[in-house]
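Re: the multi-chain job from yesterday

Posting the exact lines I submitted so nobody has to dig through the queue logs.
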Amino acid sequence: MDPQSIIAKRIARELRSGMLVNLGIGIPTLVANYVPSNVKVFFQSENGLIGTGPIPEEGMANPLLTDAGGNPVTALPGACTFDSAISFGLIRGGHVDMTVLGGLQVDAKGLLANWMIPGKMVPGMGGAMDLVTGAKRVVVAMQHTAKGKPKIVDKCTLPLTSIRPVDLVVTEMAVIAFPGGCATLLERGPGISVEQVVAATEAKLALPDKIPEMQ
Amino acid sequence: MRTVSAKDAVAMIPEGATLMIGGFMGVGTPEQIIDELVRQQKRNLTIIANDTAVPGHGIGKLIDAGLVTKTIASHIGLNPVTQKQMIEKKMEVDLVPQGTLIERIRAGGCGLGGVLTPTGVGTVVEEGKQKIEVDGKSYLLETALHADFALINAFLADYSGNLSYALTSRNFNPIIAMAADTTIVAAEHIVPVGLIAPDHVVTPAPLVDYLIANE
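And the result, structure tokens for all chains:
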């Protein structure tokens, strides 16, 4: 399985029936492909939709029904639409149970940087700052390294998205949580050893006695 | 409410005007009005909108034509022309978290001086802003936004100017409809009064100054 699918499949196991979930663009979007069949969640698109369904069949796209990337989606039975003030009221107001976002860096305390690389890439924060500030649970989906360099660092060098730490980071090599503000290795990737994770991670990781391979 | 041609509506907009424009990645943007702004070469515009779409589409057309000197938006990452003009300092870009942007506009339309939001606290977004503590929690004072014109895309407009919206094309439209001196609407369909049931009207007719007539 490719790294992106490993990450998306593992994050899908965090979903619980009844949750209102917001998926960011990129790897997070793939999480929707792995929702367990016995789990029913509501997916929110920040552009004003709850009940976002899969990509429409060819020829069935509605130009007025898109996701946060502007791509055509479908609306599941029971879906509803609303304006951007309500959409971000849901997000900032703590009504979103879980958000999954991409990341550029996460540091040893769980702080996330994911919206700009000064001098190189300034796309804007879009909804990311509101999501990290307001969602009940924040999960980061990203590859463990970028061009061989660790993305899980001691301290973020890129501008922070929020001062609220994330709850979970899932990469193709590791699942990391931050109990007590301390990066802790909970699971290791398929065929990956603890030593390999530690070597590819700049942040100091707490290592519990048991670190199972992720499912 | 008066009906006008797109040409006459845009003729009312002076160069240097501040425009709020509906749409999320071009979905819910009044293309007719955009095309006319380009045709009449209205320069030095300030745009307040969620994003600048992509080149050749929606607000992207105004950017392509070099008509915009300032943009206040949450995300410009999918429009390389916007990025280029920003880096070359041909256009000033003020990036605002999406939930903050829509609330600043809502405040502007609702007679409020601004809003207090936790989004951006401790990040570069807080630079130059007043921080206010309420019940032990820090918030940024984000001031209200106003515009000279709001350019709206509705799905249905009745003969009196009541508006309703379709699916994810609603986004910023009903919020900006309240925050400008003059509101101009392009609707997908113009329908008899009564066809939009009172409970389904999203933007009340008195907020609409001009409706673009069918040609």
